Amino acid sequence: MRVLILSDIHANLVALESVLAAARQQYDIIWCLGDIVGYGPRPNECIELLRDQLDMCVMGNHDRAALGLPSVDVEDFNPHARRAVLWTREQLTESNRAYLAQLPDTPVCPEVANQFLLTHASPREPVLEYVLTPTIAMENFSVFDEPICLLGHTHKPVVY
User: Fold this and answer.
1) Which helix (H) or strand (E) holds 141?
2) SS3 category, 10
């Protein structure tokens, strides 16, 4: 099984379309590790392109913030991200808001590949924790049983 893994799209439709074109349908399923929206100018278009293609997607902190959920305070965001979140809130259609709202906000294990755990930020704090060091990664290992955990949020490709 070939899995296309997406994360932190941040409403960048041009980049999303480029990735999907480069993948040329050479995958069996698509997983998204959150943050479909945020920063970029095309939140509705990104959701609409993905919603029927994704086999599994978790909610990211920007998705949560765009919905106005209380666990993410936009005052903690940098000024650019805060403006983007507030703008995105005004732009989202009701159906796209409903799509984001139904995404799981806790780590999930896909039925088709139960050796994986998918989360946005970290297994122990799925919304905001940044796993940027081996120490933080090691502290998270005790939180899950699956042999492989996939996460986004940091915008840095790394394997621990």
Assistant:
1) helix 134-141
2) coil
> What one-letter code names the amino acid at 25?
Q
β-sheet bridge partners, residue 5: 31
Q: What's the rounded Cα separation, in Å, for the pair 74 and 62?
A: 9
Structure tokens at 103: 């995404």
Whole-model pTM?
A: 0.95
Specify the residue for token string 């259609």.
93
Helix (H) or strand (E) holding 66, with range, is helix 61-67
Q: Could you give the C-alpha distances from 27 to 21, 22, 120, 142, in angstroms and in order?
A: 12, 11, 21, 31
**Amino acid identity at 130:** Y
pLDDT per residue as tens digits for the range 135-146: 999 999 999 999
- Domains of the chain by start residue, with CATH: 3-151 (3.60.21.10)
CA 17 to chain centre: 17
Centre a 10 Å sphere on the Cβ of residue 41 and count the other Cβ atoms it contains.
14
